[in-house]
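Researcher: Structure prediction, please.
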Amino acid sequence: MFIMKAHNVRHAIKGFALIATISVLLLLTMVAVAFLSLSALTVKTSRFEWAQEEARANARLGLMIAIGELQRDLGPDQRIAVSASLLDSNPDTLAIEGVNNEQWMGVVSSRFDQNQNGSPFTRDMDDGGLQDARNGTNFRIRDQVTNYLVSGNEGGRDKMRGARQYQDARTENLPLGQDVVEIVSRGSVRNPRDFVRVRKVVTEKLRLTPDGRTEIRPNGGYAWWVQSNNQKAHVGRPDTHRNSAIDHNNGTGMQRMLHPQDAEPFVIEGIAQGQDNRDTRVLTPKTFTIISESNRIGVLNNFHAMTSFSSSVICNVRDGGLKKNLSAFLHNSDNGQAPEIRDLNDPSRPCYIGVSPNDFLIGPPNERHAAIRDVDFNDTQLQDIAPTFELLWNWANLANEFSFGYASTGIREQKIWRGAPSRNGGANVYDQENLRPADPRNLSTIKITPVIVEACVYYNLATYPRGTGSEQQNALRLCLYPRIGLWNPYNVEMRLDKPMLLQLFLNGKKTVEFNGNVGFTREIYYGGRRNTFDGQYGGQVYFKLPAVTIPPGETFIFSMGGAPRELNINQFGANILQAREAPSSDSYLFKDYLQVRTSRGQYARDEDNDPSELMPIAPTSYRERPLSYKEHGADNYMFMLKYLQNNPNPTIASFRNEPALVYASVSLQAGGGDEFPLEWPTGTEGIVHQLTGPGDHIDAGNPPHPFSRDGFRVRWLDETASNKGVNNELFLQEAPLGNWNLRASYICRNPYDNLTNRAPYFHGIYTRDNPSDELSWDNLNPVLRNGFQTGFPFGKANFGVDTVVAFEVPTREVGIPSLGYLRHLQLSEYVWHPSYTIGTSVADPKVPTTGTIPTEIPGNNRGWSSAGLGTGYWAQLFSDIVFYLPEKNHLIFDMSYEVNHNLWSDFFLTGGTPNQVANFAQDPIRSPLNNGNLRLWDRNGDPTNDLNDMFRAAGRLMIDGGFDVHSTNKEAWKALLATTRDTGYGSPNRTPFPRTLFPQGQENDKAEYSTKVFTGFRSLGDQEIDSLAEAIVREVKVRAPFFGLSDFVNRRLTEDPTGRNGAIEAALEQSLPNRGQNQQFPITKQSLPNQGGLVAEGNPRQSDLTRSDQLLKPASTGYGTPGYITQGDILQVIGSGLSARSDTFKVRSYGESRDISGKVVARAWCEAVVQRTPEPVRPDQVTGLNPRVPQDGEVNFGRRFQIVSFRWLHADEV
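Model: Predicted structure follows.
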């Protein structure tokens, strides 16, 4: 074997071991350094993840605190979320001034603890009626905010202690810094004014020091901010009926015109459609950038205007509790009658009080409601004349009789006062001729009758010889040309299947002067009812109107037809009129004056001084000239229309027992003494036509003189120059469909009418006329349409309008979809109440804006006294007309305010019949309710019975996309208002607001005046929508907060301008939609001129002739015509989607982590959508549907909130 030999070390190579050792050490050093670096990186990564998780934990903490604040502050029903932008110091501009943090959201309570009943509304029928305690008390929203829901304000204003200072949105200044975070910044918005800053709240933890002590040190912080989604436009909600194309013939798809089924995002500034399919919807607002890249900036600019999720609890914000489902009353019956829905076990809360057919629509509905409001129900002074809930039920059930389109109805007379009132006999104003009067008390049945828009006569005078030779004298003949206008204001044809009889009381005791000779006069008396002329009843003539069918919206003009006939004052059937032939001067009723010796001969003056009606010479000209102002004035001016149920050939005996449809006194004195007559101007003469004998007649083409016209008509949109005179124009500016009720059965002067002091004593909505050429035969000639002579209700017959449909009856296809659709229902039989009530809010000029009833006039009977009406006798006669009801009732009151107050806060409608609701309950996607806003929230079990229940329906439903009327975002309002845009009802890119769904005319797409406003429907362009939305925002900023939806619909009970109109009504008056009619037919807003005392027979002493406030009238006499957009038109479309509070909120939260030196090492942002639900946190024992009343200092948490979505945000999204 080989054995290696050892060498001598001294002779070997030197340093190898050292080098090897160093190399190994270097390698070990590198390995050690690598491990150390890896360890440091691991520790660093671990610390960052820990810090990030701590930041997220702080963000979650902020979110939970925010939700807790929401639950406490906005869980109860009587809480309102208000944007700080409502504190704008200059509400006339869109820019918010005087508020540092305009996007903060505050909380206001709708409880008014200053009043014992918890409401600002009190009632004192001896001092203004319903009143609002907020008026005159320096009530300001800034003082009512109990908390702003931002970090640092936890607990609210009243819980701030020590170093914690309450942050007021108006004054809090938050410059960016260590303690402030921009929680909405460039990742969400573009305009710095839209940024949102909030204060951070520091989070702390305990730390153990080396010496064993503990100390508190900051370890991070959180911040949060809450915003209402209900004050934004819900752009992610599809129209559930989008596949139902609108059909004008059968009504299919019309539900899209009666509810805000969706919001229209493409009217929002900066959002372009990008494609033709309007029904494409988005998941979130940012999805608009997919539709069109140009929308990217628009999405940022409208962060505060759009949302993809919002829902509303259907609750009563004014009184608390869920709203009651009025459809459960309207669509049920008890053996064919209106049902009684009984109270639940706790009638001390409005939400549990049922509905009886006899409950009142104005004033306290019943004794239980009165008790809650601390009102004496027996002293409400409205009980005899308040309409009832049975009226609503009967109106709703009309839908079973009519189909959409061209429908037909016969006369539906109003309820007759069976057994005439005890004061209706004898020698009162009716003189025993109204023994079956229309009953104005507690309306409960539906009336559909024509409206009399004109009732007058013209006359010609003629003469013919009697006798021959020296015995020849000349007889005078009066030729009467009656003219009666009947308007069918409904959207269905009206069959007058029985004839009617019109009693017309005019000045039948005129005197005329012949040939310009003051010594040659005769009296042309006519009328009466006792077989001969009777001075007391002189001027009473009766005309029979034949059975006829009036198409929707048309006005038929009835006149004489055929050969001349003698006026019959006993057999009234002989005085029959017709509407197929035009009035002609050769067709008239005549009376000859042939008496030789007569008691009235004293006025037969001529050259022979013989008191004979016969004349020695034949006159050729005449003019009216009263010889005695007392003797030759009218005993009365009135008309009465009766339906001939019993005797088609009436006499005075049968007439008095026929049912009355209309009684109208157009008189200063209701028959209490002669009313001063008018005198023709000197130099004005009519022709006396020369006849050959009694069998001869006036030929065609010889119309009567226009000054011979005597009678009444509805005021025109633009009155005659003669009527306007020097200072009468303001008295004549009235909106027939605004402050007046042309469907009324009782028309007369009331103590609060404005009145001119000289004949013809202009007052009310029916007027007599000063002599005028504008009223000539030719100017008023009717227009032949479809075989009938037709006119126009509010002007000359040749105005250029063939139909005016003002009111729509319910149909099977549409039913009663919402409260707003009830506006077509007539609620009063008195002419001085408005035509449209529910949803309307125009102040009654007769009532001070601080209340709902007028200031008392000295004397008794609530103004129906000598001080109110001129003399005690006149007051008695006017009281006769209204059956002395003023002894215990106010007949003058703001009806719109009262009925809106009772309905809009308390009730909602599902809009469905029980079968429709059952289908919806089983399959809400395929069988949505007509009100597509309503979605099923609680699906436990079968909800059908609950949905058809008055009290439980709102516990199962929510309003998808419910819009809070406190929104101050113009773009959000625009999207809501444009909900009907491009539905197929009108032109593309237009938003229609039809008064009736089946209009007789065309679309009016221009704000400039056009006669289309009377026949068709109005649609708005985007500029008009923009103008209206801006004006609404202004009104919201001035009026908010709204204590319930009724408070938003109604005007304010205050002296300032908000007392004149509701918010939307005021906005319409200030914006573009109605400017055409406002300019064409303006109402001048200025005080009326002083009239002095009445110049009339009997030396009357009326204390004030101008009690109605001209400033409170609408902007135009055309207000209420079909194309004039009103608040009611807007609410008919969007009303069912409105809410007076918010229930869906976006919560954005921020969290951060800090190191030991206080440096921020991690940040996190999150966002959640939080929804208030109908579920109470602590349910009551009655139904479990409402929160129980807090006991012994309990916190009222109201209804439960749920988180419906959550996401983490990247810093770039903030």
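Model: Residues 1-12 have pLDDT under 50 and may be disordered.
Researcher: Thanks, that helps.
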